[in-house]
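job 3f2a | input accepted
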Amino acid sequence: MSIRMNNEIRELRNQLGTALDNIEAAVSNGDAAAAEAAKNEADRLKTLLTAAEQAFEARRNMGIDPKDGADEGEDKYNAALFYKAICGKALNETEQKIIASAKAAYKNSYSEISKKDGGYTVPEDISTQIYESIKSKESVRNLVSVENVNSLSGSRIWRRGDANKLYNTEEAAEIKEMNNAQYEPTTYRQHKFAGLMSVSSELLEDSAVNFQQEITSWLSDAARVTENYEILYGVGGEKHCQGLISTAGAYKEVTAPSELTIDFFRTVSLALGSGYRANAGWVMNSLAFAKISEMKDGNGRSFIQPDPRTPDSFMLLGYPISVMDIILTDEDNNTVLMFGDFKSAYRMFCRRDFGISFTDIGAGAFESDTLKAKGVERFDGRIFDKEALVIVRGLAVSPLTVSKSAESLSNDITEATLKNLTKAQLLELCDELEVAGMTNEKTKTEIVEAILAKINQSAEA
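job 3f2a | predicted structure (461 res):
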């Protein structure tokens, strides 16, 4: 009976693959009736396949204690149960209820638009590994303030301005009113970032340990790359964070002279308020670090000095230097330097969970005998204190000029923000917005104009 059922399952999977191919062919031909018929057939085959697999699994486990092989204490959702479920291991009744709860949590957290997505929220013991892995490498989340939140949106209030002194007041005299504190709201809304990976059947069958390492590594690498880009170069709007480097008017800006001097960097540091300088530091990439290292004092020593307190660390004018090569150099070999109190300047609002859903049928998984895993993360990043950071842009020949931060920031994608991106980043944004005809041969101005035209066209529609 088991052998026959196994053959029937294989045949049903083949038939389902054919039905899915028929759906794609009908859609390509614009044949709605054929597409609907093929969809109905696929749904019928899915129902039969599910029933057959459940019957096969039940027969295979007949006579086995449902608790046999279950680890003691496995009464909560954790890494062991997570991998047991996705690797197709038999689950007892208690485990099935826990997994059902995890799927419900995934739907509530990640699938507000479509409730059909049957994935899993990554359990806490795996999430902790992922976040530790993110922070162990070059990650902007080590630089800025990170606040873990549970809601999709919210607001935070921060105080700006300085209090004046108290008045010298005689006994029983009327007390003078001092200046009021100024409060400014900052709102956040979680953005959803997702991607697909393929998991081979062999990896699943090998061991849960290898699969756990693969999932942890993939999610942490993908999350780190996404967070780094969004926090540094996000363009704002409905889908992206506000970028530290890309957001126009966010902070004070300085244009670097053609010849760098220690006096220039001293002036940059003094452009930051004394209260912020107590926790300030320099952030630059390796090319900028090498360029600044060329500056020498009267004895031929570099102005960049080793930090005696920390191995392989350096200081400039007594402030620590963080070298981060995720800061890009553009097509004209210009880069960006930053100096300030980054914890005060920027805040990342992070939902401390990931979501993963799997399929062995859709997204080409059936044809390639793989499991497709979709990873999902949600976070937002916002400019917080605009006085806490100074940005040095380019190697311009103009003298030192300091422009103040804007009075207010637009949450829409603006021309000024787009001009702060490199051509490669603009072309990537063109793909996302479906802006046609943009190639590397186009100038940055032409690409920016095309993106703005597409945005205006969508707004008018």
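job 3f2a | Confidence is low (pLDDT under 50) at residues 63-74, 112-116.
job 3f2a | closed
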